[in-house]
Design brief:
2 copies of one chain form a homodimer. The first copy, chain A, is an all-alpha fold and about 200 residues long. Chain A contains 10 helices and no strands. The first copy, chain A, binds a DNA duplex (30 and 30 nucleotides) through helix 3.
Chain lengths: ~200, ~200
Amino acid sequence: MGIREKRNRQKEEFRVKILNAARELFIEKGYEAFSMRKLAHKIGFSPTTIYLYFKDKDALLFAMCEELAEQCLLELTKIRKQHIDPVKKLRKALLFHVKTGLENPDHYKVLFFVHPGIYGSQTEFMQRPSIARDTHLAFKDIVKECIDSKLFIKADPETVTEIFYVSIHGLIVMSIFKSNYPWTDREILGKTLVDSLIRAYLKQ
Amino acid sequence: MGIREKRNRQKEEFRVKILNAARELFIEKGYEAFSMRKLAHKIGFSPTTIYLYFKDKDALLFAMCEELAEQCLLELTKIRKQHIDPVKKLRKALLFHVKTGLENPDHYKVLFFVHPGIYGSQTEFMQRPSIARDTHLAFKDIVKECIDSKLFIKADPETVTEIFYVSIHGLIVMSIFKSNYPWTDREILGKTLVDSLIRAYLKQ
DNA sequence: CTGATAAACTTAACACTGTTAAGTTAAATT
DNA sequence: AATTTAACTTAACAGTGTTAAGTTTATCAG
């Protein structure tokens, strides 16, 4: 019964079509101006049709975030292969994180600020499989490498990961939510922040 | 004409009454569940009445944020008087910032994430007088002291201020928006972050 | 080819939101 | 007492996410 498979494929294609339109609308108009009704209008269907392909708005936003997370995970694994020095890996990974965040402000907003959080609480985030979670774990592994290689001072990998993570996050969030922030050039501030953090944990 | 002054005082009293009710509703139900209509219901007036005392929702939220900012500025000036060592001042100020942020999650949300930002862009924030701005400037002065006293390595005060600011901000934001975050105890993570940042800029 | 079944999609509504123009009531002034 | 001013409300606009119910369209069995 190839007809059933064909239907499934068509359904999947439509899902992707909606997702693409959603991303466009999202990037074009921004998070605040995005609505299910506007998306429906854009694809030329009634709002209810979207609900046949996505449970609700959150499910749609989740799908969009996973798209972005996939890109990140890809780049992260690439970095891990390209270098041997774990500190170099970490530096590259952190700078990439900054860059991705600043270049995809709207995705970032969804990722972190949609109530009550698309990925749920931190516990739920770590339990439920997702590409975003894999990205986080890959990042933590790099931090572990830095500590295990004795290039970093002795410290709890979990805590250090969180400190790096949280600081970078703060920079991105400020840049996104406060237009014209920071005074200092964003690229320079990003590099300075990453270097400061690494300096704080580097031996001697 | 004392009657006009009395009216003005009554009007001011009502403004405060609305503000108090708003804060209650805000703390009780959280930012997401706060609405002008619910506030109106709480104080027993029609929604439109609020608009006679506050231009719009943003004006009301702004007033609430300034209340919190005033508390912060008070504590900050207290810290500046209590200590002589600028690094100690900075450490205290940073820890206080973390504490205040974590203890007032909903105010913090308004402060930073209401579109397009209650205090406007960073440029507008720095130009227009506000208590929040004064707090930021007081904080920057402490950083300057640290650099001028040669206890810190040579660096641009503006950039360093932003790095501290942004990192602390990230910790608060993550804690607020991701329940159960971080894994590490919040107080410990806060202290570790502050110490890491200071260590990165401390001489030798 | 016809009738039943299942899938796809829409209409119309619900319960909200912030905001405002216009109308009403109560108080103060002339 | 008549008029002006202030305080407050009603009713509406334009929007939001979401869903129950109805309609159209396509697939399947006999």
